[in-house]
Write a structure and sequence with these properties.
Elements: H1 3-13, H2 18-25, H3 29-36, H4 44-54, H5 58-62, H6 77-85, H7 92-111
Helix pairs in contact: 2-3, 6-7
Length: 112
């Protein structure tokens, strides 16, 4: 999948118009259209802003394999999926709270 398709898919997933996305990262709607149609590529600073808006890595947007970060949460992949799938539109703070609840439930389960 090319960067334009990723930007389009992520924008639609967030339920943003091209105009709304442009305003968030300080570019015109026409610029977003050009990116999505692979007529232009975002600058490096725009890629960083897009990654922040969409909560993805810049490597993902650029089509590079993502480096696996050391995961200290101790959550299984299923637990992470549950935490992140409850509502895709929740804030990072709410996601963190859900993960903390999952971790607490996991500790409680081990005591039984």
């Amino acid at each position: 999948m090319n960067m334009g398709s990723k930007i389009r898919d992520l924008r639609k997933e967030k339920r943003l118009s091209q105009t709304e996305l442009g305003k968030l990262i300080h570019v015109s709607q026409q610029t977003v259209t050009a990116w999505e149609n692979n007529k232009a590529e975002p600058t490096s600073s725009a890629v960083v802003q897009l990654a922040e808006v969409f909560n993805v890595s810049t490597d993902y947007l650029l089509g590079r394999p993502e480096k696996h970060k050391e995961d200290n949460s101790g959550l299984s992949e299923n637990q992470k999926l549950v935490a992140y799938s409850i509502d895709p539109d929740i804030s990072d703070e709410e996601r963190k709270a859900i993960i903390e609840m999952v971790e607490a439930a996991k500790k409680f389960r081990r005591r039984i």
